[in-house]
Amino acid sequence: MTKTEQLAKFVAQTKFEDLPENVVQTAKMTILDTLGCMLGTVVADPEKARVAFEIVKAFGEGDEACVVSTNLKAKAPIAAFANALLGHGIDFDDTHKEALTHTSAPVVPAALASAERAKKGGKDFILSFVLGFEVAVRVGMVVMPSHYKFWHSTATNCTFGAAAAAAKNYGLSEEQIINALGLCGTQVAGLLTYLEFGDHSKSINPGKTAFNGLFSALAAEIGATAPPTMLEHTRGYSYAYCFEEPKLDNLVRRLGTDWEVVLQNSLKPYPSLAASHSPMDCIIRMVKEHNIKPSDIKKVTNRTYNTVASHFSNYDPQTVMAARLSVPYCCAVTAATGAGGMEQFTEETIFDSTVREVLAKVEIIADPELNKLYPEKFPAVVTIDLNDGRSFTEKQYYPTGDPNNPIPPEGLKDKFRGLAKGAIDDDKIEKVIALMDRLEEVEDISDLVSLLTK
């Protein structure tokens, strides 16, 4: 049996009852977190939300699935596109460490839209999300880290996860799932060029990922065929999108035993890239403990792993998204304000003279010893040197939100409350939280959808 066939069999045959209880509970909190990120974009970045909504209207409304915070309904692939764009819109969504994918941003919308189209219940939604998540990150672990030289891993690898989630809800056979995965491999795209500019393409990428996944599942359902070994063929996805020998064993290693949504997935305490969170944790602790003022700071040094220096060290972010993707900025704003919330990522803040003065004092150093710890750990050793000669150092290897340093459920519920406020009615916010606690008991997914829409 090929590895693609093994993945297809896993998706087709796994039942809700096969999921361990901790997987179910983690999945529910991850879904809640992703829904919060979708709603948060509507409030924090209304222009990005407008783009999503206008694209839905341009394609023409349908009756299969809903777009959150609106009364818009569309065909499932278009609804999933809009919701996935929103899910990644403020960079507050989860990160799988080894695959380096914001997996849930496209996979939750794909699972939700396909569950709506197929008129499924809460168990189906949870199961399709978990299976889609598993497929997405396993594909990612095959091609990373060299894949990240050019490719936006969320946009590329998660296409397979979105298709798997939809395939499960659509009841596709193993052969049809193989075709869906094969069709995914010829459609994936999404480049990292946005790292410098912080433009809309970063969010549109996972939107298109969700669309492509649902499109592939639909095409397979109709009868379209595709190469049956897309993932392992020497002219297939893994070899084409990897700049070294792909780690094909990761596709099926301990499949159905190791659940990646529990083992390696981090939920975010700050609305910025995951690479910034360890240094932000360190800096916030030092600023509070030693009552450090911006005018006190002589230098901030962040020793960390190589990718931070090579990919995430923009010293002159000109947009809010560019600031979210800049570890130097994230270090500077937390040093200047002692916090890392939504208010630290506004146009007013990113151009604030005090923040910019501190930003000029930040240095990112790629440390070979710390690089050996990545990606199992996201290490940072941060030193703040003060003008009076004092110097303080903190280190952190597992940022807040990492499975080894998790955010408790009540903290994630509070995060949802903060992000959802203004996007849906206050009474609906609490009803969503209560429903998520018993999501596996919900017989009709529209019970959840009605709380997320107008």
Can you put this structure into words, describing what you see?
This protein is α+β, with helices and mostly antiparallel strands and 454 residues long. The protein has two domains: 3-268 and 409-452, 2-methylcitrate dehydratase PrpD, CATH 1.10.4100; 274-396, 2-Layer Sandwich (60s Ribosomal Protein L30, Chain: A). It has helices at residues 3-13, 21-44, 46-59, 76-87, 104-118, 122-143, 153-170, 174-185, 194-197, 201-222, 237-240, 260-263, 277-290, 306-311, 320-324, 327-337, 347-350, 353-359, 368-371, 409-420, 426-437, 446-452, and strands at 65-66, 73-74, 95-96, 265-266, 297-304, 362-366, 380-386, 391-396. Strands 6-5-7-8 form a four-stranded mixed β-sheet. β1 and β2 (73-74) form a beta hairpin. α7 packs parallel to α10. The longest helix has 24 residues, at 21-44. The radius of gyration is 21 Å and the shape is globular. The protein starts with a helix and ends with a helix.
Helix content: 40-55%
CATH 4th-level superfamily of the largest domain: 2-methylcitrate dehydratase PrpD
Radius of gyration based on Cα positions: 21 Å
Average predicted local confidence, pLDDT = 97
Shape: globular
What's the SSE pattern? HHHEEHEHHHHHHHHEHEHHHHHEHEEHHH
> Number of helical runs?
22
| CATH class wording of the largest domain | Mainly Alpha
The CATH architecture term of the largest domain is Orthogonal Bundle
Query: CATH topology of the largest domain, anyone?
Result: 2-methylcitrate dehydratase PrpD
Kindly give the count of domains.
Answer: 2
Largest sheet: 4 strands, mixed
Contiguous low-pLDDT stretches (5 residues minimum) are none
Distance between the termini: 47 Å
The percent range for strand residues is 5-15%
Strand order in space, largest sheet: 6-5-7-8
Structural class estimated from helices and strands: alpha+beta
| Beta-strand segment tally | 8
